[in-house]
């Protein structure tokens, strides 16, 4: 019996599931699909799943806002960062060829990440809620003018044909995921992973005065802590004010990181620690 | 004959057209729809339109990444900021009532901005490329189980029925637009507007060293220049590096702003000035 369950958003064959399977390699793992990012968070929070995997950023398209906002709404901890190389495939019916295609379905991000390829054709581009889900959908209809954009794995799962592989705009297309657990849950850190550099993530808000953000970032800069990401999201309390998601190198077990956080906390109107975790290596996504 | 043309993205009745009509009140104005944000920019750049209007940020959902990225790709200037209160309506056929609805179409942002209302119903939510376009689409089919989410104005234009008005999650739902022109074009600034405070926008990249962003922001902070927005977007050159879009209070005609920019330019690996413009007042969007 599988006894470690990992929640992911989408349908079987989704890139999130691929990220989960690349990272969690234990035999005891089972991946469980959920419809929405929020359902993934709730499953972990409600102890229905041990871990959840959420995409937070794409190297070409930027932040995945909805997922980041959920890090604020739920009190889960980031236990790992996963980077997955995203290889998109054009997927159709067994008897179809590229010249038969008239409509292509995928998640809006999938359509955008393949726009250079799609611009060569006069196909209707139809946004769907999930890449793998759009493969499943067209697999049930027997229309060889329909194609979907998703992973090689999704094509295999739904027994559909890959018409063209590697149609993403850029071969440097990576998505970054967080693996999340309830606070206090042990991470499944391997000994290999323990040797990696650590990163930490926080989110905070500042008072609406000149230099407030600058002062907070100064606590990292003066300690030579390298900020790897700064993302602003709208505050829920007040229009045109923001919360800031910051990732930096180092672990909150290190004194200099802890003291930086303590000082930012004094200056910020709000601060939440999202976790410290081993920095990801870039995985090639090939099933 | 109308001789000032304003390009907007979407179809007649789009919120972008509404923003254009609220801001440009001259009788000589005509609004011209374009399919994509990029087409709007190109129309202005190619002198097919005098101005373009692009949504850049929503107060609830945050940055509109695709539009911001185009500010980098084209050499147009921001001549005005427009803030529009977004009132979403559920729109259906003349004979339809809310209980008939089974499917609802809108731009993904429209669906998200109304999710609290939509969560009360078991309707299929189908993403479309444009709010007003989804009204036009359902208006052509005679299926009273279909509804769309768009503006009151879109309902009027396509002669459809408003089933429910004001279904957005939050009554503080505003979208911020930029009006853009070619460099050197005179803005249509009214005398009322000339009394308003000015804002400026820049975009820059830093070297990937600790404190680089902090040092750049310091040039604003030390001059008491209030930064109103900081948005990071992926660099096109290198994975997990970023460019920063910064808005601040003040005009580039002021000495202290100019000297801040000059200093940031020395520290940044790249800097582009997007424009100085009168800060918007919040408009209520009611046709």
Quick structural gist:
The structure is a homodimer of 287-residue chains. Chain A is built from ten helices and 16 strands.
Poorly predicted residue ranges of chain A: none
User: Biggest interface and which pair forms it?
Assistant: A-B, 41 and 41 residues
CA-based gyration radius of chain A: 20 Å
CATH superfamily of the largest domain in chain A: Periplasmic binding protein-like II
The 3D shape of chain A can be described as globular
CATH class of the largest domain in chain A: Alpha Beta
Q: Helix segment count of chain A?
A: 10
CATH topology of the largest domain in chain A: D-Maltodextrin-Binding Protein, domain 2
* End-to-end CA span of chain A: 23 Å
What count of domains describes the coordinates of chain A?
3
Helical fraction of chain A equals 25-40%
Helix-strand string of chain A: EHEHEEHEEEHHEHEHEEHEHEEHEE
Query: How would you classify the quaternary structure?
Result: homodimer
Average residue-wise pLDDT of chain A: 92
**The CATH architecture of the largest domain in chain A:** 3-Layer(aba) Sandwich
| Number of distinct beta strands of chain A | 16
Look at the helices and sheets of chain A and give the structural class. alpha/beta
Work out the strand percent of chain A: 25-35%
Summarize the biggest pleated sheet of chain A: 7 strands, mixed
